Amino acid sequence: MGDIIRKSGKATTIGGGGIETKEMVAKDSPTFKSLTKQGYTIVGSHSGVKICRWTKSALRGRGSCYKFAFYGIKSHLCMETTPSLACSNKCVFCWRHGTNPVAKSNWRWEVDPPEKVMAGALEGHYQKIKQLRGVPGIQMDRFEEAFKVRHCALSLVGEPIFYPYINEFVGMLHEQHISSFLVCNAQHPDSLAKLTKVTQLYVSIDAPTKKDLKKVDRPLNSDFWERLMSCLDILRTIQSHQRTVFRLTLVKGFNMEDIESYADMVERAKPSQIEIKGATFCGSSNGNGNPLTMQNIPFYEECKNFVENLNKELQSRGLDYDIAAEHAHSCCILVADKKFMINGKWHTHIDYPKFFELLESGKEFVDLDYVKETPEWAVWGSQGAGFNPEDTKYDRKAEKLKKKAIRDEQAKKLVEQQQQQQQQQETVQAKR
């Protein structure tokens, strides 16, 4: 992307040939207005950062997301960002409902340098953390810790690997000892093949067949299935040194059938681990062609049944996987290669200091070189179902009912007081 010349204003030219490029998300565009209204901070012209609800939850001691149970990421130390708001899919379960930009395979906008993206993302994240000061329940020790990001989830929206300088950006994260969890949609095999070492590499596997993938992801590229297959092969070959994870988002009526075809994909790519998560309902949006309703959102028991059937199919083929961990609150379950079972204990957590030590050594290393034991409370079948016992469960529905009961009791007492006052006044008047 060295031939892209950045200029002041909203347009640039490429190679002096008169080809005009524009900002992906201009400040005066409807897209900018829509995304900022949804809580995003737009960084530069094509990147974004937003506070995850789990960050807020962790700051209040109400629990971290599944990534803490599975990998040891504390949510209040995690920044969720993307260097590319544009995506090559329009997935039915996407929480953006089509409000972010889309593109096929070629970057066609102005490009911001990674230094600008990095600085802007951190600044935007910390500014949003500051706004949480004084919120009821915030634990000040965690609040202060939150101003030193330790993890970066490159999964906010759009397609991070689409950014031309993704390797440089990841390198900047690592220089500050910020771990990198990069999620890609398996539609950019060339970029995937060139990706440097990340802490964990996710590939979204949203359907088991070509027909279902078109229905679920609504991809822009006509050769979407071939692109996915190429990415699976890259995971098993060029990127086999990475800690790789399949990410399955389950949507009832769309992609919860054909276990055998899912197993075919696992057998082809041999990922380190497989995450299976029930889709989260973010509201219907018929105007943008979003067909989902609450009937498409699986219950946790349905997700468990799916995982158990998938695991059974994998093992019947001689593939050495097993169910390792769970986070029921996120409706998420982790299946892992049994090489992560060491001395009878699962080791799906990451030793982050070890990762950076290995990275800075300049030597080659693989996923097993920086593992850490999974805590008992996160292991599959544990009593807490993946909820950290150091935190306190917060039941929104129960809290609403509790607050309503308090309001009702207060209203009842007020009525009684008013009745007593009225009776006293009537007694006084009667004596007169």
Structure description:
- There is one protein chain.
- The protein is an alpha/beta fold.
- It has one domain (24-378): Alpha-Beta Barrel (TIM Barrel), CATH 3.20.20.
- 36% of the residues lie in helices and 16% in strands.
- The protein has helices spanning 30-37, 53-59, 66-71, 114-130, 140-145, 166-175, 189-194, 210-217, 224-236, 259-269, 300-316, 352-361, 396-431, and strands at 11-14, 19-22, 41-43, 47-50, 78-82, 151-154, 179-184, 200-204, 244-250, 273-278, 321-327, 332-337, 341-342, 345-346, 349-350, 371-372.
- The protein has a ten-stranded mixed β-sheet with strand order 3-4-5-6-7-8-9-10-12-11. Strands 1-2 form a two-stranded antiparallel ribbon.
- Strand 7, helix 7 and strand 8 (200-204) form a beta-alpha-beta unit.
- Helix 4 crosses helix 6 and helix 10 (259-269) packs across helix 11 (300-316).
- The longest helix is centred in the last third of the chain and has 36 residues, at 396-431.
- It is globular, with a radius of gyration of 25 Å.
